[in-house]
Design a protein that fits this description.
By secondary structure, this protein is mostly helical. It has one domain. The chain is about 75% helix and about 0% strand. It is globular and about 60 Å long. The two termini are about 25 Å apart. The relative contact order is 0.16. Pfam families: PAP2 (PF01569). It comes from Laspinema palackyanum D2a.
Length: about 240
């Protein structure tokens, strides 16, 4: 009971400091507000796309884009797009997550470790749960890669998990190297863009699958960043009180 009251008091002090007159316009407060707004915007986009997919309003649009992408196929692009598809696959993403987990564990960076696990595991579960709610077949136009996938095509798990994991890693790098933040964010964006395009190029996802993957991935990425920033802020407050 005492520990519960102590924890509750810590949370009250935290939110008081977040929203008092002096810190209302602070960087952390603005970051929290922006993150919440971006989450709501992302979910709004996802629901809008989902409504069009369910009502089959995007069928012709999806098909036209896929046929246009097919015309861009070249031997060099085939190799490049297969590589990007693999970069967004579970083997690479799990390997990156495990490697960073070990690194944060050895360095006792517990907040970074928790943030990474929250982003990676939570994102994977959210992706599977959303896919379970749909039964959309994958494109049957062509398939350059045979992933033997038995999950719904909607939304793209490669894109969603790529946005979450690479996005969170890019965010951590941007915090550590603020001077190079712009280039880091640009590189992360281009990497995820390559993964998204590759999933259409190899014929395993419709464009709306990719867009929905972006929306859900960006939403969970914002949840992960908000959670990480709250823990970082609490840690800074705790150190100041010592």
């Amino acid at each position: 009971m005492f520990r519960f009251r102590q924890k509750a008091a810590q949370w009250v002090r935290f939110w008081q400091q977040q929203f008092n007159s002096q810190s209302w316009l602070s960087l952390h407060s603005l970051m929290l507000i922006k993150g919440i707004l971006l989450f709501l915007l992302s979910m709004g986009v996802f629901l809008y796309i989902t409504d069009g997919v369910i009502n089959q309003e995007t069928r012709d649009w999806d098909l036209k884009i896929m046929l246009a992408i097919q015309k861009t196929h070249t031997p060099i692009l085939d190799i490049l797009m297969k590589t990007f598809s693999n970069i967004g696959g579970p083997v690479v993403l799990i390997g990156i997550s495990l490697g960073l987990t070990v690194k944060f564990w050895l360095r006792r960076q517990w907040i970074e470790l928790f943030g990474l696990l929250w982003a990676a595991i939570g994102g994977a579960l959210v992706s599977l749960l959303i896919k379970a709610g749909f039964n959309r077949d994958r494109p049957q136009i062509w398939a350059m890669i045979h992933d033997h996938l038995n999950t719904s095509s909607y939304p793209s798990g490669h894109v969603m998990n790529g946005v979450v994991i690479y996005g969170f890693c890019g965010y951590l790098l941007g915090r550590s190297f603020p001077r190079w933040r712009g280039l880091i964010y640009l590189g992360t964006f281009l990497l995820v863009l390559g993964i998204a395009w590759s999933r259409m190029y190899v014929g395993l996802h419709w464009p709306t699958d990719v867009l929905a993957g972006y929306a859900t991935g960006f939403a969970w990425l914002n949840v992960s960043i908000i959670s990480f920033e709250i823990r970082k802020r609490r840690e800074e407050m705790r150190r100041k009180q010592i």
